Amino acid sequence: MGDRYSSLASVSATRAVLEAHGLATKKSLGQNFLVNDDVIRRICELSGVGPVDDVVEVGPGIGTLTVALLARARRVVSIERDPDLPAVLAETCAPWADRFTLISNDALAVQPDDLPFAPTAFIANLPYAVAATLVLDYFERFDSIQRATVMVQAEVADRMMAQPGTKNYGAYTVKLALFARPASRFKVAPGNFFPPPHVDSAVIRLDRCAHPDLTAAERAACALMADAAFATRRKTIQNSMRTYFGKGVPASAIADLLDAAGIDARRRGESLSLDEFKELGRRALACGIARRA
């Protein structure tokens, strides 16, 4: 590769690989291949991946980022759902065959035991339709993952990094914050992809945070409270929770819960901090609301 991070990171190289295998990009799978080696470099640097890291990569495509990771990490397992790409990856990743594993499956269907090792890092250029779901899912289910560096739609990165009181702060922000905190990000313009997407992208790094003050049950209750608080975003938290729980939880119980947590029922969900959602989760579990929902 010389001084390049990836020999595949150009339009000409990407076209050549696809044409050699009689393939074209598939819009249905959200395929937009990176074609800028400087972006590959910045992803590798932001991720901090080194010789002690075992990486799980989702959406390797033709291996543009994969080969750069294999040159730096101890091992890489890539998950790709496109049945036409295993033959391509077998070719592009051949120099590292002893340290590379490919799993042909939907990433959301892959279980921790399906991987050949417990990954320390999660790296992906994600289809925008599933990006938010997949990042949270992998932090929840793969305990060994300590950090994630992912390419997502810019608006998704905004949600991941949002602060209380801002328009992008919502239930997803709270639930992700129960597992990870944003460390850094950078923008990636459409022209860095083949074909160019119709949206701006961002690479964001998320580092796992342990939250030792929460049990697993309390964490789940906190996530439930976030869903309830943002069920109807323009309403007060009390009314939003009433809408979310319906007849399953009496209005008086919701009022008592908010009072016990020290939260004014007239506030809106977007004004609550993570610590306040934690307290709501603890109180909801203690009074049984989290168990009834």
Question: Could you characterize the architecture of this molecule?
Answer:
With 293 residues, the chain is an alpha/beta fold. The chain folds into 2 domains: 11-208, 3-Layer(aba) Sandwich (Rossmann fold), CATH 3.40.50.150; 216-292, rRNA adenine dimethylase, C-terminal domain (Helicase, Ruva Protein, domain 3, Orthogonal Bundle), CATH 1.10.8.100. Helix content is 38%, strand content 17%. The chain has helices at residues 11-20, 37-47, 64-70, 86-92, 131-141, 154-161, 171-177, 216-229, 237-245, 251-260, 274-287, 289-292, and strands spanning 33-34, 54-58, 75-80, 100-104, 121-125, 147-153, 180-188, 193-194, 201-208. α3 (64-70) links the parallel β2 (54-58) and β3. α7 (171-177) runs antiparallel to α8, α8 (216-229) crosses α9 and α8 packs across α11. It starts with 10 loop residues before the first helix and ends with a helix. 45% of the residues are buried.
